[in-house]
Write a structure and sequence with these properties.
Elements (H helix, E strand, L loop, with lengths): L6 E5 L4 H12 L3 E5 L3 H13 L3 E4 L10 H12 L4 E4 L14 H29 L2 E6 L12 H20 L5 E8 L2 E2 L19 H4 L2 E2 H13 L4 E4 L5 H8 L1 H8 L6
Parallel strand pairs: 1-2, 1-4, 2-3, 4-5, 5-6, 6-9, 7-8
Helix pairs in contact: 1-2, 1-7, 3-4, 4-5, 8-9
Length: 264
C-alpha cells in the first residue's frame, strides 16, 4: 500500500506510539489527522509533521465521550473526501489489584479502551463501506492475549478488542476493508506514567519493562509495514513475546511461568 496523499487518522497521537506513527507517516507523504485530548501536545506533533512536508490537522477527541464522533467524522470526510486508514491507538492502562480496584475504575478503562475505540470505528465504517476500501487498525497489547497481575481491566479491554475486530474483519472482507490488530509488548513510552492506580490517580513512574522496551519509532515502522502488507496481527517487542507463543503452543509451560510473575 502506498500511503502518499492517503488520509490517515491516528488517535492517541499526542505522544508515544501515536506521535511516532504520525512522524513516520509524514515521512512517506500521508495526510494526517491527529487526535487526543491534549491540544498543546498535538500542536507540537503537527509542527514536526509539517517540517517533513506533510499535510496535518489537529482534531481534538475524548475517547470517554463519544457523542460527537459521527459529526466529527462527517466533517473530516467533507474536507478530505475519504479516510483510508484509521488507527485506534488511544487508551489508558492501570496498576492495581482486582481486589482493590473499584468498579468505576474498571468501567472507565473499558469506556476509553473499548467503547471509545469501537465507537470511532463505527463512525468511520459506513464511509469505508461506501468507498469499498480502507484499513482499520487497533493497538492491542500482549495482555490482550493473556492476563497478568495489576492489569485486570486493561487486559479485559484488550481481549474485548480482539473479539470485536476479528468479527469486523470477517464481516467486511467483501468490502475490501482490512483489519489489523497490533500486539505490542514493551515499548518505551510514557504509558506507565499515566497508568491509573486504585484511586484513579496517576502512577507517575516508568516501569522497568517499559524502560527496557523497543522504541516508539521502531514500533511505528513495524505497524506501518504491517498495515502495508495487510497483516491480520502484528507482534512487536522483545523476549516478552515468547509468552504469546507459549500460551498458544505450550500452555503447561506458560502457566508455570505466569504463576510466578510479579509485575510492578
Amino acid at each position: 500500500m502506498n500511503f502518499k496523499d492517503k488520509t490517515v487518522w491516528i488517535t492517541g497521537a499526542s505522544s508515544g506510539i501515536g506521535s511516532a506513527l504520525a512522524i513516520e507517516f509524514a515521512k512517506i507523504g500521508a495526510v494526517i489527522i491527529l487526535s487526543s485530548r491534549n491540544t498543546k501536545k498535538l500542536e507540537i506533533v503537527k509542527l514536526e509533521c509539517e517540517k517533513l512536508g506533510a499535510t496535518c490537522i489537529v482534531q481534538i477527541l475524548d475517547l470517554e465521550n463519544q457523542d460527537n464522533f459521527s459529526k466529527i467524522t462527517e466533517e473530516i470526510i467533507a474536507k478530505y473526501h475519504t479516510i483510508e486508514v484509521l488507527i485506534n491507538n488511544g487508551g489508558i492502562t492501570q496498576r492495581s489489584l482486582v481486589k482493590e480496584t473499584p468498579l468505576e475504575i474498571d468501567r472507565k478503562i473499558m469506556e476509553i479502551n473499548f467503547f471509545g475505540n469501537i465507537a470511532l470505528t463505527k463512525a468511520v465504517l459506513p464511509f469505508m463501506i461506501k468507498q469499498q476500501s480502507g484499513s482499520i487498525v487497533t493497538i492491542s497489547s500482549v495482555v490482550g492475549k493473556f492476563g497478568v497481575p495489576k492489569r485486570s481491566a486493561y487486559s479485559a479491554s484488550k481481549h474485548a478488542l480482539h473479539g470485536f475486530y476479528e468479527t469486523l474483519r470477517a464481516e467486511h472482507k467483501a468490502d475490501n476493508i482490512n483489519v489489523t490488530i497490533v500486539i505490542p509488548g514493551y515499548v518505551k513510552t510514557n504509558i506507565s506514567y499515566n497508568a491509573m492506580l486504585k484511586d484513579g490517580s496517576k502512577n507517575n513512574k516508568l516501569d522497568d519493562g517499559q524502560a527496557g522496551g523497543v522504541s516508539a519509532e521502531y514500533c511505528a515502522k513495524k505497524i506501518i509495514k504491517g498495515i502495508s502488507n495487510n497483516k491480520k496481527e502484528v507482534l512487536i517487542g522483545g523476549k516478552e513475546l515468547i509468552m504469546v507463543h507459549l500460551r498458544r503452543f505450550l500452555p503447561f509451560i506458560y502457566y508455570r511461568i505466569i504463576d510466578k510473575v510479579k509485575t510492578t
